[in-house]
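Record 1 of the preview.
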Amino acid sequence: MNVNKYEVFLKTVELGSLTKAGEELKYTQSGISHILNSLEKECGMRLLERDRSGVYLNSVGKTLYPYIQKVCECHQQLSEVIDTLLSLESGTIRIGTMTSISTAWLPKLLQSFNEIYPNIKFQMLCGEYSDIEKWIQHGNVDMGFVKEPVSNDLTVYHLKKDEMMAVLPMGHPLAKLEKIPHNLLSQYPFILYIDDENSEIKEILDKYGIASKSQYITKEDYSIMSMVEFGMGISVLPGLVLHRCPYHIEIRGLLPTVYRSLAIAVKYNDILSPIAKEFLKHILNNIP
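->
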């Protein structure tokens, strides 16, 4: 089954440009245009509108888009099954992940799995919590590491609670404490991790007005650690982010303890390729 024209259609809609789609798929712009015209001729209807701002779906295209997407997803799953039947040690596993898990968990998981299945390839997409959920839902990845709770339409397997930790400059007054009461966080300059707008510590930040007092706001956890090292403030980060921390900073728990709940999620477990199912089992059995 040749789904090439469907894949070109999806990529063009995703990028909103014939030129960009051609560059990514290694076609000329005229080649992309020819394929899309052929698809529209096959359907007997126009699916796309084109103007100076780019390419976008018309009403018919919006109706057909999820079905075309499903065809491509099923074709990829079919290819995986065929590959597996031909060789139980072949295939590609696509994973949605976040920085902390990519550094703390994935290297060991991938290495140990490749010792069993040395010819398996991995594709990893790194993003925020919301990005990963969308990638799973849209079929861009086979599975993804997420923070609970997640969307109801995903199959979720709980992995572990990750303790949220206060990070302080070396020699900071709060470093004398084994655990830091929440109210004391408001007494010092605070560096806000932007994802805290939707996080486990949001209640703390709101209760003590910490977010509104934050002079520095960023979504880069390594930037936060560097700024803390330079004495620019204190912050709170997930424990996994601090795994093998390269910065000279103090790390303390919070009182009461705060956690984020981590899980691995898939769209439908029964449509995973056999090798992806094996890797899912490997994750569930080998999380540190």
